[in-house]
Amino acid sequence: MVNTHRKLILNIYCSAIILPQICTCSQFTSSSNDQYNENPGVFPVATNGEPFPWRELRLPTKVIPLHYDLFVHPNLTSLDFVASEKIEVLVRDTTQFIILHSHGLEIMNATLQSEEDLRYKKSGEKLTVLSYPAHQQIALLVPEKLMADLRYSVAIDFQAKLADGFEGFYKSTYRTLGGETRTIAVTDFEPTHARMAFPCFDEPLFKANFSIKIRRESRHIALSNMPKVKTIEREGGLLEDHFETTVKMSTYLVAYIVCDFASVSGTASSGVKVSIYASPDKWSQTHYALEASLKLLDFYENYFNIHYPLPKLDLVAIPDFESGAMENWGLVTYRETSLLFDPKTSSTSDKLWVTKVIAHELAHQWFGNLVTMEWWNDIWLNEGFATYMELISVNVTYPELQFDNIFLNNCFDVIKSDSLNSSRPVSKQAETPTQIQEMFDAISYKKGACLLNMLKDFLSEEKFKKGIIHYLKKFSYRNAKNDDLWSSLSNSCLESDFTSGGFCYSDSKTTSNTLTFLEENVEVKDIMTTWTRQKGIPLVVVEQEGRLLKLRQERFLNGVFRDDPEWGALQERYLWHIPVTYSTSSSNAIHRHLLTSKTDTLYLPEKTSWVKLNVDSNGYYIVHYEAHGWDQLIAVLNQNHTLLRPKDRIGLIHDAFQLVSAGRLTLDKALDLTHYLQHETSIPALLQGLDYLESFYHTMDRRNISDITENLKYFKPVIDMQSWSDEGSVWDRRLRSSLLKLACYLNYAPCIRKATELFSQWMESSGKLNIPTDVLKIVYSVGAQTTEGWNYLLEQYGLSLSGAEKNKILYALSTSKHQEKLIKLIDLGMEGKVIKTQDLASLLYAIARNPKGQQLAWNFVKENWTHLLERFELSSFPMRIIISGTTFHFSSKDELQEVKLFFESLQTQGSYLEVFQIVLETISKNIKWLEKNLPSLRNWLLISI
Ligand code: BES
Ligand code: ZN
């Protein structure tokens, strides 16, 4: 209901929808529609019935904030807070009102003082406050016009309940070892939730300084972005912490926490104090995070050649957290499983995840916090860069993790959705809070990161690094847009850079905004806009004819075949500037060519028996080899696969199966290609093949085709070689987990036997026995198949203090074949006590992966939609995971129809999400794939190798 209302208002009042240029504010150009006094009738109506003087979703830019003095006093017993703030504003153009964001706050009082009032200590003038909840805005009406170029101070007293969900200033609880439940209060603001905690100019462009004061009981501590300057005693035994003033920053990065946590600390090479906080009983799990964050902070300060500008950096594990982590400047918050590492129960994959998340959030301290996107349409500048920097930093700080192989999966993951017509361009307009939240998706994170990686490969690591440092230095404490990045990367200097004394790296060979590539001038912007403004991914079709290499580019479409009627229209007007790379049988060197037209022909210097495009899979494109191309590559793989680089082998497996989905390659041919895997020596390549095999078994299982079980294909010898231990390198250990998981899933007798034995020993030891962490999840999953084992696991779930262990147990519980047990899990998840609400999405996701739970999970979502919306915002991460996770695997026309009807019914209630269309297209694609390939897949699985 609320949403329909909002949509209507938008269409009538917000010209952003109709005339985007009116709502797009560049770095504070004044908007002139202050027509309130002339014609109040055309304005929306405030809650008190009076006209609300502003009709746009985005704030006017006549008044801008400079400094916030914020005082907050949360009461962790009555679960509410009282607060006050003084915002120093600069008036840029005469106006009669100030518009601020405020959502769900009760405003008690608002006053205004001019500079003169302040000087003569004159008390403030009371302001009229109007509220327009549909836009989450309030208007402060001033009796006399505010004058341009003057500063004023706005004081506001307000209060609210601590929020129930995961946004704004919310409460979170945890149980101590002694069984006591304790409450803490914590903030989470990105993208548009600062307005739930204090009235503010809640847009990324309105950067300001913040001085924060928190009142608390003496049993608690308070943390905020900056270090504490002093603590003052207040009446009733309360204490008030005053924090140093922040650097200039956006509202979404403000943070404060009141809790009773314990910490470990260390000092980075630059002197920055780094601390890890967790609830007292989890203190022992904080040490790995401290080691990793110190290493990573040192790395980033060196790499960017820019100091982390705050004196301290806290990383805090929050018991109830919606996403994985949040990069608040100086006070980064994490889900417990993204920060804590328990040597007894955290696996090597858990360690990888913790390292990745810390690397990501610390990268944001530069990309995002120091330099922020102007508006949410370019959120990829934050998230794509943070994801890209994970690769750069972890490869150096933890080389043994071989993070480049993990990074590749980002690209493969996003290709799945980006090759559907329902995908979107990297940069896309987003106005409403729902649209803004939807921008936090695989396209911003993963495609963004893969494009940056491709550009780095094209420009050379050195030039790319120089360019991004230039960008960071030039836009420090300011906002940037795509074009700012492109011109920084062009390695060029503008005259203004010299005159303003800005940082500039000049390359004498280049002219403004151009750089040379193979002796030709190319513009980074020209290349990159073909990747950020067009949705989708290109397919490079290559045909070798003697010494000629013929190239052609198309739009790659998953599930749409070339002879489908819509294929032609879906290709129209798509053209990318593709940095093509290749190596050949006669030269392992990397050859380069920028493909800017539909077709092109290259001359190979020598005769070669094969050619492989997209060296090391660094490019964001798929390659199809026409004529004998694929056969030649399959022959090389079988004769001596080491002639191709490991990432090229991974890329070939990936592209071959993608091409099957696009109807360009037969499934038999792709399966042929995997035949060489029995000799594969690279673990990441083996895992790539194993992933497909696993998904094929799941496909059969979902269809109740059971005669193919226990055929382990090429993997049987290597499965038989596995020990049930934590020995070996990181990738040996990852391989062991994946192989044994598949073996036990397929009921391979030796696997079940060993897992059952370990599970019984564990139960007999009352959960005290240490099982090797990499096989823990497998042992629990086998144990969960008996009622006794399942019940015991559920009991242990309630007692465990390790998030890593709890995740493994919950997954194991969700693999039960008994529906009543799965229903019990969902009930517990909805209740939110034993199974926390934060884990409901991954629980439903896991149950939907279980063939016995797939229908159950989906029915639950349909029947409990409104209850789910009481827990999560429509466009939040969990909601989108729940929607896609419980529907993605469907593959029949009836299921498609059912999902479609359900989405339509939501739409008529005013709820619409981009993910609906992605899901529907994915199901249609699944249907088509199975119609075409199920018989040959089944035959192939039946053959024993
Ligand atoms: N800035 C995001 C947190 C966020 C997510 C804010 C969605 C608003 C909406 C944070 O940096 C982030 O990206 N977190 C990831 C973890 C990361 C390692 C991919 C997450 O929460 O999943
Ligand atoms: Zn991020």
From TrEMBL:
Residues 65-253 form the Aminopeptidase N-like N-terminal domain. It comes from the Eukaryota. Its main location: endoplasmic reticulum. It is found in: Endoplasmic reticulum membrane. The keyword Signal applies. Its cofactor is Zn(2+). Its EC number is 3.4.11.-. Residues 1-25 form the signal peptide. Heterodimer with ERAP1. This is Aminopeptidase. It comes from Sus scrofa (Pig).
